[in-house]
Amino acid sequence: MEKFKNILRVFLAFFKIGLFTFGGGYAMIAVIERELVEKKGWITHEEFLDIIGIAESSPGPLAVNSATFIGYKRCGFFGALFATLGVILPSFIIIFAVSLVFERFLALEYVGYAFRGIQACVAFLILSAGIKMLKHLKRNLFNVLLVSLTIAAMILLEFFAPNFSTVFLILIGGVIGLCVYLVGYFKSKNKDEKGGNG
Predict the structure, then answer these.
(1) pLDDT-based confidence at 81, cuts 50/70/90?
(2) Three-point CA angle 181, 66, 128, nearest 5°
(3) Over the Cα atoms of the chain, what is R_g?
(4) How far is CA 69 from CA 14, 33, 42, 130, 142, in A?
(5) Cα–Cα distance measured from residue 173 to residue 178, given in angstroms and rounded to the nearest whole number
(6) How many Cα neighbours within 13 Å face the side chain of 65?
(7) DSSP line for 96-165
(8) Cα separation of 139 and 16, whole Å?
(9) What pTM was estimated for this model as a whole?
């Protein structure tokens, strides 16, 4: 019975996130962090940063990947299933309902005004999520250098507009991070072996 209640809590938490977040996965980052890290304490800030990194570098939408991972961490397979359903059901229902009256819906003047307001809010949510993630990022030379290089690369790519997907930036960052980890791991392993022999 307790497991069922936990699964229901996971579903309702992600249903709420899916229902009240506009702008897709990036806009959901701030809402997921506020609801699940700060209010509920289901995951730590460090775990949240890792989840975003894994979700972004995995196939599929960021919000769905994050929901699946957090749901699995909380309640196993059924937690993952119901967290995923919770985050996608509101969008599915709303888009399905809108598609039935799409032409008439877009023709309404007030709908256009609402969407312009939503666009501004989404930009703020994405910026807010980025700033929060930067605040909780460990301050070491590697992280500062990688963030600076990524921002510089994105600005240069935006100005010169070559045909280069941001997915490659994510993959390059992942490969660099893995290389730095392996170098550190082998250094500490060699140090331990030398200390054990001495």
Answers:
(1) very high
(2) 85
(3) 21
(4) 12, 14, 12, 20, 26
(5) 9
(6) 18
(7) HHHHHTHHHHHH-HHHHHHHHHHHHHHHHHHHHHHHHHHHHS--SHHHHHHHHHHHHHHHHHHHH--S--
(8) 33
(9) 0.58
CB 93 within 8 A of CB 87: no
Specify whether the CB–CB gap between 90 and 19 falls below 8 A.
Answer: yes
Tokens representing 1? 């019975």
> What's the token pair of residue 9?
């809590």
Chain centroid to Cα 123, Å, comes to 15
pLDDT in tens, 13-68: 889 888 877 666 677 787 888 888 888 888 888 888 888 888 877 777 888 888 89
Tell me what pLDDT residue 82 has: 93
Interatomic CA distance for residues 154 and 147, integer angstroms: 11
| Contact predicate 30/22, CB 8 Å | no
For 101-115, how does the pLDDT look when each residue is reduced to its tens digit (9 = 90+)? 777 776 777 777 777
d(CA 123, CA 142): 28
pLDDT tens for 163-198 read 767 677 778 878 888 888 888 888 888 877 776 665
127 has a pLDDT exceeding 60: yes
Do the beta carbons of residue 83 and residue 43 sit within 8 Å? no
Backbone angles phi, psi at 108, to 5 degrees: -70, 130
